[in-house]
Amino acid sequence: MTPRDTTYPFLHKDATMDSTRKPTLAIIGYGSQGRAHALNLRDSGFDVTVGLRPGGPTEPKAKGDGFTVKSPAEAVRGADLVAVLTPDMVQPQLYGEVIEPNIAPGACLLFAHGFNVHYGQITPRDDLDVVLVAPKGPGALVRREYEIGRGVPSVYAVHQDRSGRAEERALAYCAGIGGARQNAIRTTFKEETETDLFGEQAVLCGGATRLVQAGWETLVDAGYQPEVAYYECLHELKLIVDLFYEGGITRMHEFISETAQYGALTRGDVVVDGETRARMRQVLAEIQDGTFARQWIAEYAAGNANYRALKQADLEHPIEAVGCRLRANMKWLSTAPAAPAQQTK
Ligand code: NAD
Ligand code: MG
Ligand code: MG
Ligand code: MG
Ligand code: MG
Fold it and tell me: What share of the chain is helix, strand, coil (3-state, %, to 5)?
């Protein structure tokens, strides 16, 4: 059990709340972020209710973890703070139909990503505090780091401050999920939204995935064993990223051979060159001018056919089958899936 994090004052100090009782936090959604936030906040001493559609896919999990599960409307009604942790694309309708009609006057509305507020898909009611607490990592890590007494760094922002204590509320939540154990950085909804989208598109998810796939295909097409190519282009990436994480690119250079350093320094720019950087600026420009947001909203509204097809192609990429076979022998990987190539949501 992790000791309560007292870096920041708890929400009951908030002037708009009844100080004779613990504040109630409603976590709406129990997926990647929702589950991690709910568990961490409960362990930090908050009173947490989970709001989920009755019969929804994650209801048994929330109940299994010992939470009181209510319908989203009921959970919102009793809450001092409502954290909106459903997928981004369902939030506008959820806000309009369930949250706005039920949220208490003066309550705090919290997001983990600024997308809907920044792109004008949600205009929160005027009396609410509206804040953002965005952990810079997936939910499973937010939970695991908290449990071992560490935290995933988080950024926070205030969009609307009606109580005069919106920042304090955001920081209390941030502390409660373990995100204030290190550098909690104040940002804006605009900066968080644009940098988060850019990071996941150009570097972390889109960029890294395509770099790995392209490298693996290059080796396999040249006649090398797919398994050896898998180790070189995917498996070993973790070892390099762990060094980045601990000590930046400096640390990587401390640990790799001189031959690897000389090759990296002279060939990295061949792969990521000025044209790559120009395309990165194009990706960023489409985030900044709303092109990406409009395209994603339209895709979702049209039923996601294109999104599903693109994702299926990733799941069916031959590197997945190779990795699945190899990882089956890595018994220490408790999360190894039985088989790839099926979408679960
Ligand atoms: P998710 O897809 O993992 O989980 C969504 C949850 O919402 C599930 O419990 C689902 O059953 C529930 N849900 C779906 N529709 C609903 C509805 N209409 N009413 C009530 N509940 C509904 O979501 P996630 O990836 O945790 O994303 C949640 C938020 O966190 C998003 O704003 C996302 O941008 C942000 N975020 C995610 C990550 C991440 O690593 N996944 C990181 C930082 C921020
Ligand atoms: Mg992110
Ligand atoms: Mg994101
Ligand atoms: Mg190697
Ligand atoms: Mg090597």
Answer: 55, 10, 35
User: Is the pLDDT at 280 greater than 90, yes or no?
Assistant: yes
Distance 51 CA to ligand 3 centre (A): 22
Q: Which run of H or of E encompasses 68?
A: strand 68-70
Alpha-carbon span 20 to 1, nearest angstrom: 26
Whether 18 and 54 map to the same domain: the answer is yes
Determine whether the shortest distance from the Cβ of 199 to ligand 1 is under 6 A. no
Q: Are residues 130 and 216 in the same domain?
A: no
Q: Is 52 in the pocket of ligand 1 (CB under 6 A)?
A: yes
Distance CA 24, CA 49 (A): 7
Number of domains comprising the chain: 2
Q: Which CATH number is 16's domain given?
A: 3.40.50.720
Tell me the residue range of the domain where 306 lies. Answer: 198-328
74 and 163 share a domain? yes
Length of the chain measured in residues: 345
ipTM value = 0.96
Residue bearing the bigger pLDDT, 86 or 19: 86
Q: What is the CA radius of gyration of the chain?
A: 22
Rounded to two decimals, what is the model's pTM?
0.91
Return the sign of the alpha-carbon dihedral for residues 243, 338, 300, 88.
Answer: negative
* Phi then psi dihedrals of residue 217, to 5 deg: -60, -40
Longest dimension (CA), the chain: 71
Tell me, yes or no, whether 16 and 116 share the same domain: yes
